[in-house]
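Practice problem: predict the structure.
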Amino acid sequence: MILTGGLVGLCFFALLTLNGATFGGAMLYPNEPYVEFPPARPTANLLHSICTESSHRLRYPPGYFPRSGFSHLRRCGKAVDRVESWYIACCAGQTMENNHVLCCAEQAWKTALTTFCQEEYSTMTAAYHCCAEEGEAMWTCFDRDSPNPNYAPRADYTAPVQPLENGFTFIPYHC
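Answer:
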């Protein structure tokens, strides 16, 4: 009886491994859509990439995801699209030396991730682990988890044009 259970467990583990499941990683299904989430925290050193390479970072238009499932990844993609849209607004007509650009980008980043966490907690599924943190610990967690900490562009990719997302207003006197 114990031998049978052990063999079943071993077969199940092997089947999951061969079909693309990972333990501790992001991929649960072999055809799971890839979402480059979360975005890294904006810094003065990253402003050039944030402002000039936006069209070569991944976006997630509605047709990117399968018609059903992957709601958590949809929310991640929506957060990325939101912050990228707001970065474009922050960078428009500004010089990189302008401290308001960095302040705007930081506000956009925090607003997008705060909205993401609100959306995560409004579902019946487990929220992204950084959302459980508070204050600076939450921002550090998101920044640490970023798969693209330098906002590196993808030379082989051009982002689709998407409308400016609603929900963000830059407040210069919070800088």
